Amino acid sequence: MTTSASGGGALVLTLAVFAALASTACTGDITGASPGGGGVTSGGTLGAGGTGLGSAGAPVVPAPDAKVAEGTGTMPLRRLGVAEYANTIASLLGAEIATSVTFTADPQGTSTYPFPTLVGGVERDAFEQAADEIAGKVASQLATLAPCTAGGDERACAKQFVTSFGKRAFRRPVSDAETTQLLGLYDAVRAAPISLSYVQAAKTLLSAMLQSPQFLYHWELGPAKPVAEGGSLRLNGYEVASRLSYFMWGTMPDAALLAAADAGQLDTQAGVDTQVRRMLPLADTARLVTGMVGWWIRTDKLAGLQKQPSVANVTPELKTAMRDEFAAFTADTLLKRGSYVDFLTSPNSFVTASTASLYGLSGSFGTTPTATALPNGRAGLFSQAAFLAVEALPQESSPVRRGKLVATRLLCRTILPPPAGVDVTPPTVSDNVQTREAYAQHSQNATCAGCHKQMDPLGFAFEHFDAVGRYRDMEAGKPIDATGTILGLDGKDVGFDGATAMMQAIAGSEEGQRCFVQQMTGYALNRSLGDFDAATQDAAFTAFKSGSLDPRELVPAIASSKSFRYRVPAAGENIQ
Amino acid sequence: MSRFVSRRNFLAGLGVGAGFLPLLGSEMARAQSGIPKRLLVVTWTNGMRMGSWRPSGGETNFTLGPVLAPFEKLKSKLTVIEGLGQRVQYEANPSAVGWKHTEWYGGHDSFPAVLTGHPLSQYGDFLGVSGGDSIDQYIAQKLAAPTPFDSLVVGPWSSGGYYGATSYRGKSTGITPEFDPFNLFKTLFSGRNLPKGEFDKARATRKSVLDYLDGSLTAFGSRMGTEDKAKIDSHLEAVRAIEKQLAGGDMTLSCTAPTLPNQFSTSGEDSSNYPKALTAFSDLLVAAFRCDLTRVASLTLSDAGGDNLVFSWLGQEFTGPGDEYPVRQYHDITHRAEQSDDHRRRKDAVEAYFHGEIAKIAQQLEDTREGTGTMLDNTLIVITNSMGVNHESRQVPFTLVGNLDRYFNTGRNLKYGNGSLGVAHNQLFVAVANAMGVDGAGFGLPEYNTELPGLKV
């Protein structure tokens, strides 16, 4: 198994690992498997069936048909993820207010992106401790957040605090009923026998709001009735504001977004487009691409990266340099240059002293990433150290892991795990046996080949790069063979020699381009995609394609789509 | 980030390790009415070499192999059960998880199903989500014992989230085990390190906040769909568990909190403190049973992969080079388990270590008098694994320790099934529920809801 150093990622690990390790003794019947096949997954996550009556006895939604025709899907309740929580606290109270509490890592969800766990005892504990800690730290801000003049009406001040801070913490106006509940808490802790002071009570309110579901869950609809429109539910302005800000920035809406929601400007496609284009150039938008791509290549694993000492000395500086290069290059190509093609094929990266040494660059480099053209035919993110080192074994490269990642994330193909009874110990590479030779059994054994021909050759493209991402011409005394074939790319088998040629083929293919659209749509919606999202994806692809494959045209196309701005009711939901 | 959800800074200054502390937040002053029955379920991954686990000899005159050898002293209290498997995974569903059930390979993905009687489901997420209650949670809910905690879910080595969880409530994602023993100590035995007045005030404030959260969660989820509401209900349940604990008032127990060692780090991917953490959890679980703070507990010894578990304390040969990592870790050891005598010995030594630690828990219970017997006579420890050999879940090991007030006829080695696909492990769990005084027929899939025959006295 690979490590899940920081981020859950339960499933992807299992699949990746088993695929990665298979196998010297690959046997078993997997003829029923159907690898390949890009495009969206079918189905989606629909409800388990209506319950007949809601809690208030109001009519509720029956289980929706599996084929939702309205052009959108459900919006499963999701709470703030680990990074979202940290970013939101920073946006709400300042970057200096952070908690030392560590939360349960977010595992991978149906979207194939992180989806936070349920809140059980452990999570509840963590939220309580974090909220109390944060409330303790904001002491100096309380005079600003919850001002009250000496001798003033302290209850009125508390109410003002609940309304003003609450609107930001809940990301929408606080309802009267919610204000009453919070003031009930205020009254309880002011009264005997607790008898807290006003300031202590304000801190308690702040802690309580940070533990409340309105803060912790993405359900900015709150107690309001959903907006029914044309068979679907249209997200209201506050729901759209949060969906936009968490998609693009990984944090809560800023003042301008909340103001746009107040003014009803997010109820229209044009209004959403205006906001997206305002947001795109802002610095926090880097989180969109580093968050999405970072999950593909599992940059969270860099912290725990280990290699055999004989292969490389993986220093903390090298890990930092790898991460910095990934972040700088990803943001530069996808957002600043605005080029999906550059992201996959450009040699112009950002290097610090540690990576310069790894890449064999001469010249002086420091700790600040410096724009530099990489040597040895390195082109695009996938010939840089972060990807190559994480997707490799401690002592050698891993064509299976690297190839599987390309197949699933850049071509959106499905690779099934190996069947029962397979010995998944990695093949043995020795002084005389090249990595590629060791993996040859995957193509010789017909049972293995069914799946492995979909991934091993894509991994062979990277054979010029060793376990830590260093360039090599020879291995085991023989020249490197980095040739291979992508099966069925836009319906054709496409041969290549080396990573650059393979990435150029992918970048130029409709399958690759559509996959990027699908990846970003999944990231934006954080649910599995269904047939009902086809119109959204087609329109987004058209915008992406006609915009010269500029992700800055793709983001607004997704954000203003029906899939993003609408949802269907959940089974059992009360929409009256 | 650490794979441990730790709150060490928060705990600094708590003063755990102080030995006996006055206890609070429980209803323990109530008169003990009869002796309670208790259940501890222990699970982990990576299977074992079944030949080393399996006893030799007959049903009653058997000899323990190297893996179960640590139970020699308690042999008369064992039921070793062969021939059970995760039949639900192979027969009932698995198209839901993306491949045909004949292709189901068990393996690490079977981890969330190890204690449930359901195939995995796709509910709300991808793989790694259970199809229903795990046996500990099924029993805890039905039992509704008048204890401060209806169950404890702990483990010294969990990645958290779905992938480390074995305890599940309903068709949902798992209950993250508490993997910080110091935090569990605080939860179970909060010491009064504040002056009485301040402490009461802090507790009353906390209770007011919990009351508010109870109300706001209830309102928040009221309009939601079934699946979303279930998520809010889980959160609400976690809030209510603490409310219930606070409602009991403070008092001094007639039992003693265990002494934990000085604070140690359980952070990151360094497993060197694993033995200390496991010992601390064992002591805390025994104490929780003794004090009747709970009657149901699950202890998960690894996450679904066994990643990064390096058994350095078992000897130098356990820190040699590995396949997937520079240093040999649990998953490596398992995959190499049949390749040489050295590898076989290492795999067996690891499994004997785990069983030895569980045997120590059993021995502590056995050494505590209760009624006319020992605590172990009123307790059942269920030991199992998500796999048998070679990453398959068709046949998995089961060992029971204790007779649960003479329900189980112990001191036996039982064999079920006659093929490679074991008898549904559900049926054993049905028996466990029945033995705990809870109707087991409602557990798991209805086609396997009859009690496994041949277990009872």
Sequence-ordered SSE layout with sheet pairings:
The complex is a heterodimer of chains A (576) and B (457).
Chain A: H1 10-21, H2 82-93, H3 121-137, H4 142-145, H5 154-169, H6 176-190, H7 198-211, H8 213-216, E1 227-229, E2 232-234, H9 237-248, H10 255-262, H11 269-279, H12 286-296, H13 316-336, H14 340-345, E3 348-351, H15 353-359, E4 370-373, H16 385-390, H17 399-410, H18 435-438, H19 441-444, H20 446-460, E5 474-475, E6 478-479, E7 483-489, E8 492-497, H21 499-507, H22 510-525, H23 534-546, H24 551-559, H25 562-565, E9 566-567
Antiparallel strand pairs in A: 1-2, 2-9, 3-4, 5-6, 7-8
Chain B: H1 8-11, E1 38-44, H2 50-53, E2 56-57, E3 62-63, E4 78-85, H3 87-91, H4 135-143, E5 152-154, H5 161-164, H6 181-189, H7 196-221, H8 226-247, H9 274-290, E6 296-300, H10 330-335, H11 341-366, E7 369-370, E8 373-374, E9 379-385, E10 396-401, E11 412-415, E12 423-424, H12 426-435
Parallel strand pairs in B: 1-6, 1-9, 4-11, 4-12, 5-6
Antiparallel strand pairs in B: 2-3, 4-10, 7-8, 9-10
Structure description:
The complex is a heterodimer of chains A (576) and B (457). Chain A is mainly α and 576 residues long. Chain A contains 25 helices and 9 strands. In chain A, the strands form 4 sheets. Chain A has a 3-stranded antiparallel beta sheet. A two-stranded antiparallel ribbon of chain A has the order 3-4. In chain A, strands 5-6 form a two-stranded antiparallel ribbon. In chain A, a hairpin with a 2-residue loop joins strand 7 and strand 8. In chain A, helix 17 packs across helix 20. The longest helix of chain A is centred in the middle third of the chain and has 21 residues. The relative contact order of chain A is 0.16. By secondary structure, chain B is of the alpha/beta class. Chain B has 12 helices and 12 strands. In chain B, the strands form 3 sheets. In chain B, strands 1, 4, 5, 6, 9, 10, 11 and 12 form an 8-stranded mixed beta sheet that branches. Chain B has a two-stranded antiparallel sheet with strand order 2-3. In chain B, strands 7-8 form a two-stranded antiparallel sheet. In chain B, helix 9 packs parallel to helix 11. The longest helix of chain B is centred in the middle third of the chain and has 26 residues. The radius of gyration of chain B is 22 Å and the shape is globular. The N and C termini of chain B lie far apart (50 Å). Classes of the chains: A mainly alpha (576), B alpha/beta (457).
